[in-house]
Amino acid sequence: MCRHLAYVGPEEPLGRLLVSPPHGLYRQSWAPRRQRYGTVNADGFGVGWYAPGDPVPARYRRAGPIWADLSFADLARVVRTPALLAAVRDATLSGADGEAAAAPFAAGTWLFSHNGAVRGWPGALAPLAGSLPAEDVLSLEARSDSAFVWALVLARLRAGKPEGQALADTVLEVAAAAPGSRLNLLLTQGDTVTATAWGDTLWYLARPGGGTVVASEPYDDDPHWCEVPDRTLLAASRTDVLLTPIEEPDEVLAPTDPSAPLKELRT
C-alpha cells in the first residue's frame, strides 16, 4: 500500500523527480508497475523538501489524489530542492484523518514515510503503546498504523539512536508484535536517506550526474536501478549507498559508523 520516494543530491525541481519521469510517483498514483498490494494510490499524497540553508523541511499534503491537485503541478514545476521525500497513499483502513494521515510525517529536521501495513492494526500494536511517552501517544498526528510506527521511530531518534538503528529496531519490534506486517520505512534529514526493505519493493538509483534516489519502484527504465533485497537496511548519501541485512537489534549497526561491516556500493 502506497508508493514513496526520497532524493538527496544536486538541486532539482520537484517535478523533475516526481512528475516528469514516465513512471514517476505522479503516475504511480494510478498506474504503479511493481505494487504487490493494492492498485490505486488515491487516498492522499504529500511531499516534503528542504530549502538551501534551512534544515527544517516544508511540506505540502492533501487528502485526495495527486492528479486532482492542479496547484501541485505548478508548485512542482518551479520549486527546487537538494533533498525531498514524497508519497502517494493507499490507506490500510478508511478513516477521517485525511491530510493528517498522508506522508511525509515530520518532526524537526526529519521526514518519514511508511510503505506497507501493520497486520492486525490497531490491536496487534496495543502492547507497544506503553513504551511511548503518554504525550507522544496523545499527540499522534493521525489514527493510522503509519503514524504509530513513526512515533516508535521518533522516540528512538530522540533518545539518540542513529537513523539506521532507529529504523531497524522499530521494524524488528513491530514485526515481532504483528508478524506478517510490511514495513518499508523511509527517513531523511536532508543530507542522507535511510530506508528498510521489509515485505515490499524497494529500489535505488545512483544517478550519473550525482545524487541518489530511493523509491518503491523505478520511475523510468534506466538499467542502473538496483533492487534492494528484502529484510535489508539501506543508508544512502549523495554519493554512496550502503546495504546491510536486518537481523538481531545488536547486529544492526549505524550506517554512519565507519567500522560497520556494511556492503558498500560506491558511485
- CATH-scheme architecture: 4-Layer Sandwich
- Low-confidence segments: 250-267
- Shape type: globular
| CATH homolog superfamily | Aminohydrolase, N-terminal nucleophile (Ntn) domain
Number of strands: 14
The CATH class name reads: Alpha Beta
Largest sheet: 7 strands, antiparallel
If helices are DSSP runs of H or I spanning 4 or more residues, what is the number of helices? 6
CATH topology: Glutamine Phosphoribosylpyrophosphate, subunit 1, domain 1
Beta-strand percentage range: 25-35%
Tell me the series of helices and strands, N- to C-terminal.
EHHEEHEEEHHHEEEEEEEE
Instruction: Give me the secondary-structure category.
Output: alpha+beta
Count of discrete structural domains = 1
Enzyme class: hydrolase
Domain Glutamine amidotransferase type-2: 2-267
Function: Catalyzes the hydrolysis of the gamma-glutamyl amide bond of hercynyl-gamma-L-glutamyl-L-cysteine sulfoxide to produce hercynylcysteine sulfoxide, a step in the biosynthesis pathway of ergothioneine.
EC number: 3.5.1.118
